[in-house]
Amino acid sequence: MSIRSKNRQPDILQTIVIGFFKLLWWLITLPFKGFSEKKGLNIEERTYIAKKKAEIENLAQSENPIELSHAVMEADKLVDFKLKAMGARGETFADRLRNMENNIPPSTYEKIWQGHKLRNELAHEHKMRTSNAEYREASKKLLDFLKA
Questions:
Q1: What is the rounded CA–CA span in Å between residue 116 and residue 32?
Q2: pLDDT, tens digit, 9 for 90 and up, residues 89-144
Q3: What sign does the dihedral 100-104-106-112 (CA atoms) show?
Q4: Distance (Å, rounded) from C-alpha 33 to C-alpha 64?
Q5: Secondary structure of 48-115 in the HEC alphabet?
Q6: Domain 43-147 has CATH 1.20.120
Q7: I want to staple 139 with a disulfide (CB 3.0 to 4.6 A). Which of 60, 115, 116, 122 is the partner?
């Protein structure tokens, strides 16, 4: 009887089989990973975000509740734009945000959710009463994400 060494190298057939199964696993999981693993923003995206952010900050200084609610809606859209530009996957804003949770500081992540909840209330509950301060706070929470 021969004693096999624990440090034995795999032979060529084992290497091929292992490689085949790794390739098969990669192909199976590819649709779930998405094709875009982009993390950074290009110059055009940064410029667009800066321009839109300035417009939203202008709206947020208003005393008109309609303009303030518009600022919240636009801030939410701009956060979604940045999430997509960062390579976030998902069909909805909520899906994309959840998929990026590990890439966003926890306090910022929570602020985005709070701002998005107010945006959803604005979009879906037409008789909602919100103060100007709440609109401004929601806009600020959403725009804080754009600083990074």
A1: 25
A2: 999 999 999 999 988 999 999 999 999 999 998 888 876 678 899 999 999 999 99
A3: negative
A4: 43
A5: HHHHHHHHHHHHHCCCCHHHHHHHHHHHHHHHHHHHHHCCCCCCCHHHHHHHCHHHCCHHHHHHHHHH
A6: yes
A7: 60
Structure tokens, 45:
């995206």
- Looking at residue 129, the DSSP 8-state letter turns out to be -
Q: Report yes or no: 15 and 23 within 8 Å, Cβ to Cβ.
A: no
How many degrees, rounded to 5, is the angle at CA 146 between CA 144 and CA 148?
A: 90
Q: What is the CA angle 125-73-146, rounded to 5? A: 140
Q: Burial-class residue 98 by CB neighbours within 10 Å (0-12, 13-18, 19+).
A: middle
In whole angstroms, how far apart are CA 20 and each of 3, 8, 9, 24, 128?
29, 21, 18, 6, 58
Where along the chain do its domains lie? 43-147
CA atoms within 13 A on the CB side of 10: 8
